[in-house]
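Hypothesis: this fold can be encoded by more than one sequence.
Test: take the structure tokens below, design a sequence, compare later.
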């Protein structure tokens, strides 16, 4: 679950080019978008969650967003776990992009919490985006 260079095994280096801060920042942001897509994939495949768009009856010209739901999120009246990420560039399923990049997926994503909830039988889960 750690981000490592394929050839050297070294962790991510923000200043890949010391003289080009803007280039380094754009590279970091692009990596963040790739990580977001990967976390979404893990939510769907590893956690068996589905993406639901809100509002459900929005027209094409209305703003929409999405949430992730466990299979029983709309039918389980007994338990509900709602996970809300922070603000900024952090997206559904993530606590902090920086933790994902500099430490690992377990530290920076909500996936361990979701897996623990599923383990103890509290599968009803909504992840707000």
């Amino acid at each position: 679950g750690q981000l490592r260079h394929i050839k050297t095994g070294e962790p991510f280096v923000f200043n890949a080019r010391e003289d080009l801060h803007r280039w380094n920042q754009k590279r970091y942001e692009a990596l963040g978008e790739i990580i977001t897509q990967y976390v979404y994939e893990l939510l769907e495949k590893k956690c068996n969650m589905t993406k639901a768009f809100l509002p459900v009856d929005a027209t094409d010209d209305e703003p929409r967003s999405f949430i992730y739901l466990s299979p029983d999120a709309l039918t389980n009246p007994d338990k509900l776990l709602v996970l809300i990420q922070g603000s900024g560039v952090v997206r559904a399923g993530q606590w902090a992009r920086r933790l994902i990049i500099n430490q690992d997926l377990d530290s920076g994503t909500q996936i361990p919490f979701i897996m623990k909830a599923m383990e103890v039988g509290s599968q009803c889960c909504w992840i707000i985006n």
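The radius of gyration is 17 Å. The CA atoms of residues 39 and 88 lie 16 Å apart.
Hypothesis status: open.
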